[in-house]
Amino acid sequence: MTFEVDKIREQFPILKQTMGKYPLVYLDNGATTQKPQVVIDAITAYYTTQNSNIHRGVHTLSQNATVAYEGARVNIQKYINASKSLECIFTKGTTDGVNLVAHSIGKTIQKGDEVIISALEHHSNIVPWQFLVEEKGAVLKIIPMNHKGELDMKIYQELLTDKTRIVAVTHVSNALGTINPIKEMVRMAHKVGALFLVDAAQSLQHFSVDVQSLDCDFMVFSGHKLFAPTGIGILYGKENILNELPPYQGGGDMIKTVTFEKTIYNELPHKFEAGTPNIVGGIGLGVAIKWLSELNLTEVQKYEDNLLAYATSELTKLEGIQLYGTAKNKSGVLSFLIEGLHPYDVGTLLNQQGVAVRTGHHCTQPIMDYYKIPGTIRASFSLYNTKSDVDAFIKALTRAINMLK
Amino acid sequence: MSLGEKENEIIEDFAIYDDWMEKYEYIIELGKDLPQIKEEYKVQDNIIVGCQSQVWLHAEKVDGLIQYTADADAIIAKGIISLLIQALSNETAETIIDAKLDFIKEIGLQEHLSPTRSNGLVAMVKKMKIYALALKNK
Q: pTM score, two decimals?
């Protein structure tokens, strides 16, 4: 089965829009992806025919909704190759997942313990760890990067000690596109007895990830960057580790029995899912992941890599382009500045021509500080983007440059 | 020319352009006519908070009228502040404080700016009015 982009594109109704007289060229997929018709239909169908609360009702609607929600969990389990579906905890998204792990692991962290993150992290994989180390008197260590945006594996090795409790690193950098050698990094962390959390927010929409092969202890991601609705995400954790962790939030669904003297927690995955969840979000995520897994992901990845290479080559033909993030292994992202031009001016004029990009620091201020720049212009791609999107982007960019120079 | 007349003139200036790319070309041109702020006034206190690019604004009272000078590191922001100065400079503090600036809506500028930039526009107007208020009785 080869990958036919036209057949994919026609499943995304939003892409048929025009912005004024220009067709929409959506290149802000790092921020969020658009939704295919099957996901939109699933949301409508849920509220039209299934809406009810899950896990408690004796009535048919509730049972059907529960089956759909738990079925989604199984789709997700299969997609990331977790050994059991109970290892997939529904969250609000990547940020929520990192906060959950930092909070629950935090209960066992002691003064002088060490947490390692990298120079490439999104603020959501920095700030929860800062909360933790401040509260516990622990130490936060940062794996540095080189000018291309690649992590320094030699220094990472030196940072790992018997005091390292957890390493939390992004799979793909949202600002620079670098793909980190996660499998090797997990192996190194395990050698000193540390746990490893993978931030997969930017990787799962581009290629398949096998948690058993990576051997990571946790992996977090967001549904909305993966063709699913906002407000839903997944924390994957190894069963034995999740069982040992204390719960995050208290409430309904996460308990087995409650008395005023003592509460017995529910089993996985419900122990970490307090309160009525985002049911339609979970179902939507299950549908999106099933839709994605029915594509030939090797072909998709090849297609996207070719598209990024084409965009990079076309962009660098223009004068005065400075690329940020030139790692050998890259996915999905073109971050750049144009000599003498402010990114907001460029972003505004691209928007006027129907091209959606992001400008700014991309929630990665430490990366911008490293390059001593306030921000970049970021074009980020997904499987429905085409060479004509790239051509329209370059044409709009050329016009913007001519106007601003 | 009264403020109302100046606003009408701006509306007419914009009306001759068909699409927003042309209007932006005009805004960029306006940036080049911006009354330049003196280097000594490009200080932290004169930065307009709420803009995504850096915009500096200075005001002084000359013969009872307020005069503004400004600069920005982004060209479009420069054009927008220049447009506002074109309208409000050389007016009395009272006129500036009461100005409704309907021309902004009339030319459709607000909806063509991203939300953050639109906030920037609001912040610019606010800072200009604050300066007018401060200089009112001086």
A: 0.93
